[in-house]
Amino acid sequence: NSPPRAHAGGHRVLVLPSNSITLDGSRSTDDQGVVSYLWVRDGQSPAAGDVIGRSDHSAALQLTNLVEGVYTFRLQVVDGQGALDTDTATVEVRPDPRKSALVELILQVGVGRLIEQQKDTLVRRLAALLNVLDSDVKVQKIQAHSDLSTVIVFYVQSGPPFKVLKAADVVRNLHRRLSKEKADFLLFKVLRIDTAGCLLRCSGHGHCDPITKRCVCSQLWMENLIQRYLQDGESNCEWSVFYVAALALTVLGLTGGMPWLCLYCRRRKRIKIRKKTKYTILDSVDKQESMELRPKRGIKHRSTEHNSSLMVSESEFDSDQDTIFSEERMERGNPKVSVNGSLRHGAPFSYCSKD
Length: 355
Known about the structure:
It is a single chain. This protein has five helices and 18 strands. By secondary structure, the protein is an alpha+beta fold. The strands form six sheets. Strands 8, 9, 10, 11 and 12 form a five-stranded antiparallel β-sheet that branches. Strands 1-7-6-3 form a four-stranded mixed β-sheet, with no helix packed on it. A three-stranded antiparallel β-sheet has the order 2-5-4, with no helix packed on it.
């Protein structure tokens, strides 16, 4: 009794979107026949991918929902005597060559409620929006996105000569043209239209998240909000955090300093106005005073008249003093001669006779 010889099928290649394959272990041999088969997935293989039924205990292993990567399965066969043998098989799943052209359309409808007739109508309306033939819209798969939503993955070609359109261009055109149509133009409410794969380059400063389809920026970089929300809406990592921080501080400083600057200018203006008004009043007063002090033609100035009157009174006073002094001298020189009366300015005198 010779031991059995296992044959797992060798190396297989699978190209997405095809994600199902069958590994045939029926070519395993034994002189008395193989009585059991067991397929075991290697621990370094992708966890995604399902085994159909209990095919992992049969000669043919049936797999589905495989993803990009390399799977390794080990086949173990046992004969009637308990002898065993093992062999390995690998499945290389390659990416979809049209990955950059795939578009995801998410509709608000349960996957079980979407019928074939509605799918055909949907394809026709997509073709009308994109100005292509119905046959140019290729639906790749329809699957549940949630309990109440369905995702339809498709790509668009044009020709002849036939070429596949870029997913980013298709998404941009659909966004622009659907904005001009009614909400139910595609039969159901559109929840999202986006590229199936994450194709963003993120300005070379980050990577694209395959779930959210948005850029995850590296340290010290951030999203250009103007492009994101005011232009084409594409996620990016164009802005440097340093430049944004410097700009924010500058704007904050200008915003905070403007009220103080306005207040300072207003105070300076008030001071200038006050000084100008004050000087104007002084100038006018000086002019008035100069006009008052300036004698008019043919009219003597009041101060001049006053001075002249003072001069006259002073001269008169001098003459009176001379008269008084002369009379006193005469009286002293001739004491016998006396006249009753009084001198000017209240100087009393008496008359005495010689008896």
